[in-house]
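Input record (one chain):
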Amino acid sequence: MRGATLGKVLVSATAVAQMVGPYVFDFNETHIYNDSWPPHAKFHNAQTMSSGVALSMATLANLWRPGSGRVGVDAAAFAASTYWLSQLSAFFYPGTASVDPPAEDDWPQLKFTIPMLAVIGVGWFLARRGLAGTRQR
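The corresponding structure, as predicted from the sequence alone:
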């Protein structure tokens, strides 16, 4: 059960980062207060920030509600990783860039996205392993 708790704490930490990070990096003059962005672009930025909060709340609810068991851990890991995987998918859309010009488009988000997905994976593994001997589904 100890591994389950450690795993849940790891996944929870990524959820907290996912709630706070978008506001730290996007709620400023580079994004939401960027005068060169049209209102619809700001709409989608705001939607992305709110999606991070919603997915984080789903993650935490699934992890910590009483009796959540393996199904809760699986749902939490899915919710936690969805935000980061969708960020990676942006690479495949035409005309996207990881930063605005004149900055170099070197995908600085990867230094957060890849570690977050790794921590979610390790947390999920530990939580599932810790619950293996229990009756919780």
